[in-house]
Amino acid sequence: MNTVGEKRKRMKNSVKRGIVLGSIFLLLLAMPMIGMAKLSVTRVLIEGRENPLGINTLKPSFSWQLHSDKFDVKQLAYRIQISKSARFAKQDMLWDSEWVAAEQSLNLLYQGTLLATGTSYYIRIHVRDNKNETATSAVQRFHTGLLNAEDWGNARWIAKDILPDSLVNPLPLSSSKLRLDKSYELPVFRKSVQIQKKISSSIAYVAGLGHYELLLNGKRVDDAVLQPGWTKYDKEAYYVVYDLTQAWQQGKNTIAALLGNGFYYIPPIKGRFQKHKVAFGLPKLKLKIVNTYTDGTQEIIVSDAGWKTHRSPITFSSMYGGEDYDARILPDDWSAPVYDDTNWQQALITDGPKLRAQDIDPVKIMQRFEPVGLQQTDGGKRITYDFGQNASGIVTLQMTGQAGDTVRVYPAELLTADGRLSQKHSGSPYYYQYIFAKDGTVSWQPRFTYYGFRYAEVQLHPAGSKAVRMNAIQLAHIRNSTAQVGSFQSSDTLFNQIHELINWAIKSNMVSVFTDCPHREKLGWLEQLHLMGPSVQFNFDAERLFAKSLRDMRQSQTKDGLVPEIAPEYVQFDWGGDMFRDSPEWGSSSIILAWYAYRWYGNKAFLADNYTMMTRYIDYLGTKAKDHILTQGLGDWYDLGPERPGVSQLTTPGITATAIYYYDLKLMVDIATLLGKKEDAEKFKTLQQAVFNAFNQQFYRPQEHSYGSGSQTALAMPLYVGLVPQEAEQAVFEKLTTTVCQNDTALTAGDIGHRYLLQILQSNNRDDLIYAMHHRDDRPGYGYQLRKGATALTESWAGLPNVSNNHFMLGHLMEWFHAGLGGIQQDTGSIAFKHFRIEPRMLDLLKDCEISFRSPYGKIYFNRKQSKENYQLEVPVNSRCTLVLPKGVYRVNGKQLDPNAMVLTTDHVELQLGSGNYTITK
Hints:
Elements: H1 4-17, H2 22-29, E1 40-46, E2 53-55, E3 61-67, E4 75-83, E5 93-96, E6 100-101, E7 108-109, E8 120-129, E9 134-136, E10 140-144, E11 157-159, E12 187-195, E13 199-209, E14 211-216, E15 219-220, E16 224-225, E17 237-243, E18 251-260, E19 284-293, E20 298-302, E21 308-311, E22 314-318, E23 322-326, E24 345-346, E25 348-350, E26 355-357, E27 363-369, E28 373-377, E29 382-401, E30 406-412, E31 414-415, E32 421-422, E33 431-435, E34 440-444, E35 451-461, E36 469-480, E37 486-490, H3 493-508, H4 527-537, H5 543-556, H6 584-587, H7 589-601, H8 605-608, H9 611-624, H10 655-674, H11 678-699, E38 700-701, E39 706-707, H12 712-721, H13 729-742, H14 753-763, H15 767-774, H16 782-787, H17 813-821, E40 824-826, E41 835-838, E42 848-855, E43 858-865, E44 870-875, E45 880-886, E46 891-892, E47 895-896, E48 903-904, E49 908-913, E50 916-921
Parallel strand pairs: 2-10, 17-26, 23-33, 41-45
Antiparallel strand pairs: 1-3, 3-7, 4-5, 4-6, 4-8, 8-9, 8-10, 11-25, 12-18, 12-21, 13-17, 13-19, 14-15, 14-18, 16-27, 19-20, 21-24, 22-23, 27-36, 28-29, 29-34, 29-35, 29-36, 30-33, 30-35, 31-32, 37-42, 38-39, 40-41, 42-43, 43-44, 44-50, 45-49, 46-47, 46-50, 48-49
């Protein structure tokens, strides 16, 4: 067995051996370069996005990736040019960095003439590499947002109704009673304008709360849903920027918008599910459109009292209760120029939150599921559809009926024993409803809500004697449209199924907030961000979503420094005192997520932007600690004990909270040092040592080499975060493995401890135990959930029917699939995968494994076909890879390597490889 001490010694020896690069690179350079492509600059990013409309800074950062079919290609120099025009004429140039000798291609800051708000600019990148090649990127455009209140000019917030100040409640207590106030109607807005000249540019800035759908001449301007993303509305809201240049017509044009409540207002209606009672205000709209004509003149269109408003055909809209649509209220052409709005009322002027350009990807319909089965009852008036997948989404319907007919749809995760839908544990009642305005066939989908479901029960209620007919129905899966950047596929069917199980939980809970579940709560519980963060990052481009999550934390932090368990915080759960608000394992995402994201993406803004929040949270934890020990919170949530899962059962109170506190301090030493805050670093280091001493005095049992109760979590967490004295590490680790084996390798660790258990076993080469714990389906765990029919990760290890069956937490095995079985890890000290290792595990049991991952430098690909002793590897330009394989003699791209060109150990060989595509055979 490889011990903790042996691992440390092996790492030191590897450093002493050095890196044998020269012989391998000389060999690769001698290989034939058939059909080699020249260097190219790809995927230029401005503030993390390609061609972004609406950035929130006048000093943007720039990144790019490079491509070349040659080997060991590195950037030697770059040149950035920013211009007011796509021609890059001399008089339009705002910044020319000239040639800078540097490898850096990530997060370079603009250093030119001050940019203006609400303006488009153009960028191109020039690069020179170590192969005497140069390349220039395609021209990209970026548009600065409206950064100041005055940038909005005369645009005003407009509404149909205004919520009285006495009813505004941005942070209700969960125990507060349901108010039954006036039922406020949702609004639609419209305004007509005349366009008589040819438009050269049209930029729109649109904020609609809680959510909006914008139309121009009766057509939607985009395909996003739940736009904009939800925020801490008493601090700020998002607006979205559109390029409408091609959407206008000569003559009369009509701009229109529908609004939904979202999380801005949860309507208190009896007979519909309502998780909480948040009320920031009633739906409202703010809009500014700048039209520039070919003759150089401009026209600015704004939301003001001149807009018309009417009762919406959406008669009910709630994130928790569903959505109703009455087509009788307005004709289909209400948003078109031909419609007469004479009888509509004037919009009311109101106030609203500070605005910020939305810089995360929008939520969209990303996949559609047709029914795989159906069951009809009640003479065909009740139809239950099975879509085969539990996913976040809405239904899309095509149906034929008569005026006054009603179609109601109940979505649900589960069925009862008699085949009926059950919303009992996912939020009830929740449904969609449509009322026909006239005879005929219609297509419809709800706009401003969503649910997590696999099944849908359709109830058909004809107004007369003719039947309503369902022509088509789909489950339209919605999620954040950020790119998928990774994949995993292996020869192990169960592991592939588990990966897919976890992936659906991620996708179903990745909207504009990472939620816990897509139905009963839809809240941003924070512990899952740092615990599931690496799993998400191996599969999705989460940089901007994580930056938003940290911003939500900053805006939810209390005056005394507490980072609550939920961000954005819409409700204060007050059952059990502060148990559901003040858990260090949750609030510490404010520090741990920021550090993980910096290491992953290489952007120091993750640290600098959040440093004040971090230090305030550390100070807060210090006020809660008694002799440096923290005991508040939920502990190892949903561990496997004798009782119904919930608050930690098996781990001594205080162990997880204090271990996270110590880990926070450990990271804060590194963060403060990196940011040049030496005094802070010393302070954190001193406090870190005090917590170390107190923790071991309080919880360590040296005679048993154990901590607290000796649970999996109680042993794994101290080992991972570094709380175990060095001389005791091996003994405590052996105690952990013995504990796991004595329990027949059954899982007991919960939401907090499971990731640390996996990480400490993986780092000590006990992947065999990870395999034994998770490669079965006869006891609670991933395989057990699959055997019970789960299609998304469930809230409990046992896949209980009385909890959520689509939940974000507990998916930590996905990280092991990519970093353990697949073997992709950053090398020690590396940032943004500049230097990564591929060290695949379990080669004897897992014959084939194919992984890919788009790092900040480009695509990393590794495909091992162990049965053929064949390996395919792709290393992106400007980075390098240490490939670790079983001991042997290898051929790279058909050429046998000199044994002296490899680093050998007792059981493996290390190859140091620069960029390129490799076929490696034994």
